[in-house]
Amino acid sequence: INCAGYLETDAIFQAECELLMAQIYMISQDYAMMYQSLQQAWIGAMQYEETELLTEINFLSSMAYFLSGNYQQAIECVDYFLGQQAEQYREEMLVILGYSQYCLEGYDSALNVLNQYQSETSCDITYYQLAKVGLLVNEGRYEEANHLLQQIKPTEQTRHLQTIYHLVLSQAFGKEINMKKEYQQLLGEFNSTSTYSLVDFIFIGLN
Residues 101, 109: contact at Cβ < 8 Å? Predict the structure, then answer.
């Protein structure tokens, strides 16, 4: 009997469960418990050097830091990610970086950071454009944000993010929208954990 193999499988399963709990805590905005679950997941993933799992933990940790107001730590998570040269969540990290830098130093600084990140990683231009839309929304520059949003070609990976920004801008232009209802409707359409988490992040961050 390969006991070591059973132990490894159990540890990884526990880490994956902790990741799921972290997402639940994020939705309920209990960031202290979200941190705790992510820390437990990290311990299990590090034990067996599960690279993809560690990348996902880092991805969610950057969100946890941002949503609890620890913007510098969120940026450090992105920097750590870049140091690992991981491909997974590369585009999603761009959005988190933009929001975090904006909260620390404002629009111009955030735009410069986005430009540098996009240049260094050659990430999907659609995510880059959506990150810029987010910055313009935060600035209250709704006309510019809407103009840029209309120019972005929808993709399967980004259409949910585009829907969220469209709803936010429609509300800013005076249209009555039940954001909670619209958000719940989106929940059943997600096709990946990263999309689910990032839409949660944007929805919570803008509301």
Answer: yes
